Amino acid sequence: MRYELVIFDNDGVLVDSEPISNTILSGYLTELGHPTSYEESLRDYMGSAVHRIHDLVEERTGDKLPADFDETLHTRIFSAFQQELEPVEGVADVLGKLVADGVPYCVASSGNHERIRVGHRKTGLDQWFEEEWIFSAEDVGRGKPAPDLFLHAAERMGVPPERCVVIEDSPLGVEAARAAGMDVYGFTSMMPADRLAGVTGCFSDMAQLRELLA
């Protein structure tokens, strides 16, 4: 493989969490008096850190979300994860191929560390990720579309940005990867290819990703 590090987004790429998370998020925002459809949640928040939700709601309405918003949102999402969450089909085969080929990889997610770990334990993906291979927007302060998280992951893994490839499924994640100077492959399971502008390539299932990385 021509890359020295593969950086995976988590939600929607490793674990099939986006439908669960955005159903809960849109419902909770609506409950709080900020009507939001599932489609609007995907459009505005998919791939972002939770601070973006606070910022956009205040920007649009002038209102602040409740102080316990993050805690309540995560409690609801984690409860649903325990019942419903599954790994993205075929992702374990991709990880196995990277291990077999000796290609380093890591995860860099807008979600917090607890969310990543809850999802990985539920889906069995925890066996594929050492603690030092897990990076969160919590580690850098600014989430996607800022490049900080991807640059942080590359630095900690000891690989120059130009030798990294990012696997993403959201416009915000693609923008962050490009800003970091990295190639990026767009996963189109949730987002059409025309929303992932600037990607190095697109794929619709994990078997195709194995071929792209070969």
UniProtKB/TrEMBL annotation:
Record's protein name: HAD family hydrolase
GO molecular function: hydrolase activity
Stored PANTHER family: 6-PHOSPHOGLUCONATE PHOSPHATASE
SUPFAM superfamilies recorded: HAD-like (SSF56784)
Superkingdom of the organism of origin: Bacteria
InterPro entries: Beta-PGM-like, HAD-like_sf, HAD-SF_hydro_IA, HAD_sf, PGP-like_dom2
Broad enzyme group: hydrolase
Assigned protein family: Belongs to the HAD-like hydrolase superfamily. CbbY/CbbZ/Gph/YieH family.
